[in-house]
Amino acid sequence: MSTILVYSERETLALELLTGARDIASARGASLAVALLGEGAAGRADACFQHGAETAYVAAGSALEDFQTDTAADALAQIARQADADVVLVGSTRRGRVLAPRLAQKLEAGCVTDAGSLTVQEGQLVTTRLALGGNTLKEEVVTSPRGVIAVAAGVFEAAPGGTGSGSVEEISPDLPPARARTVERQAKESGAANIEEAERLVCIGRGVGSQEDLPVIEALAAALGGAVAGTRPLAYEYEWLPEDSMIGISGKSVRPQLYVAIGLSGQIQHTVSVRDSKVIVAINKDKSAPIFEMADYGIVGDLYEIVPLLTEALGRGD
Amino acid sequence: MHIVVCMKQVIDLQQLRIRPETREPVLDGLPLMLGEFEKNALEAAVQFKEANAASKVTVLAGGSAKLTDTIKEALAMGADEAVLLIDPAFEGADAGGSARLLAVAIEKLGDVDLVLLGEGSDDEYSGQVPSRLAELLGLPQITYARELEVLDGGRVRGVQDLEDVLETVEADLPALVSVTSELNEPRLPPLTAILKAASKPVQQWSAADLGVSEETVGAGAAEVEVLSNLAPEQSRKGVIYEDVEEGVTELVKALRQEGVLDG
């Protein structure tokens, strides 16, 4: 009997993956297990059982408290072998997309990172991910006996299910001395809202001419009940916005209900990170800006004229 | 200290076109270039050498026969020498195959203290090769480095750029570090450097030179099968207004109908 093993250092993502893996496990006649690492790991087992995990492998050793890719991959490889897992699903956070291939190499397994979907087709696990700089969608299947797949946040929605109970297996992985250690951890300067959780996002690009103009944008975000995000130039190079509100390949990926792109042209490094938004709106003075090609709705014109009108119209409730 | 920078030859994605009737990407005839993320890695290596923190910078790159041309930019940027991995047997490799090939080449180079790569390649951006290579070489790794320095006592210190946190990590050398584009601004080599680059040593290693084959590092060893690779079907509505007043009114109406303004 095969086993699907789930791991993410982000608890909510682990629950999403368990929810998605439930269907896959039943389609494949596999059992479902979760790996929990670090101090307090055992305390997270119940939530996992409520989301379908039948077994929780808990490695609570202090060696795993300082997350190093090498050590975490080592522990997970030992758990995967003990659980006889043929599929390991890892949350594709920035940590996870580095961890997954190291784990795959230890298991001599094929690997896919940043999977934007995961389905069973004719008994095979089929993934999709963006390729060629985001221009194409690659459909792939891992052909090695074991596979490690890093699945993006938001692919599955967490929902309780399964029997609601399971068994805890305590694991003491055999870990070599760490050759890397974290000496400092500093939270990024953060904005008022977490843009990954906002249902409505207003994202600005270089078309916004000055930092003094931000209140105009913030007013629109407030009228929408949403948050303000920015492209790399605004959130990193100019530092007009807190860095944790940067959307793009070197920032965050989002999939809100509504994404409003203002004064940004739609370069692929940005758009790959928003393309799963439910509704995309573009406001740009350049009619030929690529962002219009991926928009549901667009207005061509001066953002300084459009944004206040839009804010007012939303406020009026008309 | 000997630094090896792994670079990938990629197509110029800015010039990529999609065949509308089949949604297939048109890859033939596109210019080839070095990946942007790897240039950040190379820039870091060259800066270490200029600061006397490194004694030698070797560029290790895989690609087509045209790589002998593409690699000149890396030599002009300041790499001391280049090793090119060119062989039809390497074609169709997946991330695991690419990592195994690089690992064999690095072992052949010997005496390597620091391996630098980009956090992902410009084309695939799967980010697998650095982690797989670190595992194959048995090295500790620092990832998403946006700051990097070489410390006394055979260590390297990097600042890892995660979603909400910056993490300073120290690793014992030898180590592997993958870097982000925030690390530095890769230099544009001056003409004198470009001319000088022509005389720098360039070695070319084939599958036979490395004792590998299509079955161990190429298509025959792939663990992931590509079922299709097409431009996504466009499912967006594409309603564009050129009259501002009308646009605002209609947009608000449409957003209400979509039900995305509440909740």
Mean pLDDT of chain A: 92
C-alpha geometry of chain B: globular
Fraction of residues in H or I helices of chain A: 25-40%
Greatest interface (CB-CB under 8 A), with counts per chain: A-B, 88 and 79 residues
- Write down the CATH class of the largest domain in chain A: Alpha Beta
Task: Write out the strand line-up for the largest beta sheet of chain A, numbering strands in chain order.
Answer: 5-9-4-1-2-3-10
Write the layout of secondary structure elements.
The complex is a heterodimer of chains A (about 325) and B (about 260).
Chain A: E1 3-7, H1 11-28, E2 31-37, H2 45-50, E3 55-59, H3 69-82, E4 85-91, H4 94-107, E5 110-115, E6 117-121, E7 124-131, E8 136-142, E9 147-151, E10 167-170, E11 180-187, E12 200-204, H5 214-224, E13 227-230, H6 232-237, E14 258-262, H7 268-271, E15 279-284, E16 297-300, H8 303-316
Helix pairs in contact in A: 3-4, 5-8
Chain B: E1 2-11, E2 17-19, E3 24-26, E4 32-34, H1 36-50, E5 56-62, H2 67-70, H3 72-77, E6 81-85, H4 95-109, E7 114-118, H5 128-137, E8 141-151, E9 155-161, E10 165-172, E11 175-179, H6 191-197, E12 202-205, H7 207-210, E13 224-230, E14 239-241, H8 244-258
Helix pairs in contact in B: 4-5
